[in-house]
Amino acid sequence: MGVTGLLPNLKEIQQAGTLERYRGTTLAIDTYGWLHRSVVSCAHELCMDIPTKKYINSILKKIEMLQHFGVTPYFVFDGASLPTKSETNLERKLKRQQARQQAETYMKQGNSKLAFKEFMKAASVTHAMAKSIMVELDNLGIKYVVAPYEADPQMVYLEKLGIVDGILSEDSDLLVFGCRRLITKLKDDGTCVEINRDDFVKVRSIPYLGSYTAEQIRLVAMLSGCDYTKGVGGIGIKSAFTLVRKYNNLQKITLALQSEGKQIPQDFKYQIDCANLAFQYQKVFHPESQKLMTLNEYPERHDLDMEVVELCCGKSLDNETYIRLCNGEINPNTHELLVSREQSLASLKSNSMTLKPAPSDAVATTANRSRSDIPKRSIIDMLSPTTPEKRPFKRPNVVYKTHDMKLSPTIKKIHKLTSSSPAEGISSKFFIKSTPEFDSSMLSDSSEVPDNSSPLKVNTATEEDVVTDEDIKDNEYYESSINSKGFELSDDDGEEIEESPVKTTTTTEEYVTRFKASLRERFMCDSTYAASTILKPHDINVPTKGPPVKATTTSTTTTIDIRQFAFKR
Asked: In which domain, by residue range, is 511 found?
């Protein structure tokens, strides 16, 4: 598409770069140009009416690239076909139908490679596909407009209004329409080429290009061939520039070509007139005022045939129709409600499904299905990496069953304390044993004490009582002979009791021997020891004077309280 051979001759002024140079700017996007390139990935699905989103994903990836470089896109869609192109469009449609039939034949033969090539020829971009892109643009909040007819003059009109800073397209016809800044050859890595109209004076392959007027450039395009004319056979872009500069008139150029033996089509003059009108006065839409306009204003005094203008530049309908058309609500050709391709195929599939009637005796039941609370997202949201939301943890409410039991008051208090305490029990110092565990190593190494009895018996009448401060709190001790003598061991005033002198008494070997024997007698409950060598009892409050009393023999049989001999920790 475009003027044949124009871009290669402008290679001297093509500035290679990336989209980074357009950061902060707004560029008009030739949407149908991107869609034509995207059908490569889904030509088979498009031809066979199979639902697909490959072409949508292709556009969304390019949008991501533009946003990455800080470029604001303004999408422009093609509208209705010009009446003068009806024959051309019909020829293209017939060729696509033939290619589709050939592709189906190759598919039946199992030749998928040739079938794919034919599907590529048969695939086309429709307004329903464009509507699918519009739905995504609405979700992303990106601006777009549908041209009343062709997108090229609409994009140039946006540039003239200052709404966009440049045009991103592969069509060289934009330079003929009057584009000032064309960005072309965009790749997936963001590299591109810019052609600026201000640099035309730098082109050496086409002498004096900067001095050509807009009318002369249009004539060059029509002679070499463009979207509106087939051109003259054997006339390229350089030859056309030379002829225009030399003769500067269509009639003179035609005579010069005929003198050289060139074949000129009979309707070439009509093609030139229609193309000249389409390049200047084609219908466009003002997105801010929402009114139908022309690319350039008509001259004040013109002799233009408005019927021809309507055929070449588009029909003038009521403004309300163009408002709905240019906002993507209705089909540009049929003016019916425009539905996206994927939605249309989904509705057709649902309507084609037949439901089997349920048996009369069967009970109809309806399943209650829960609906997801996930918000609706567009395809661009699915492609972008997202971080999962952190939801607050809710502790489950656990109810424990209780059993009715008759508990004593003490057990109830214990349960009450343990229920309010931490999960892991902590022992209080109150329950720690104040006396050490009994160590059996205190017994003689050679003797073995029986479990139930001992041959030793201790006579408590002549036994020396040895107690500690802790032992005086025992009730049995208060009933002893020491308590009957009138000694007060408790401190009613709350002061500490003085240390017993017994604790500081030096332990002799004889005392240790006697103490071991007493322990054996005490721990053997059925002991019948008849004779025991012990010291006479003495008053623990009176310090011991002189040598210890000699041991005597007694035959009294009794039991003693082992706590009298316990050591205080």
From this structure: 443-569
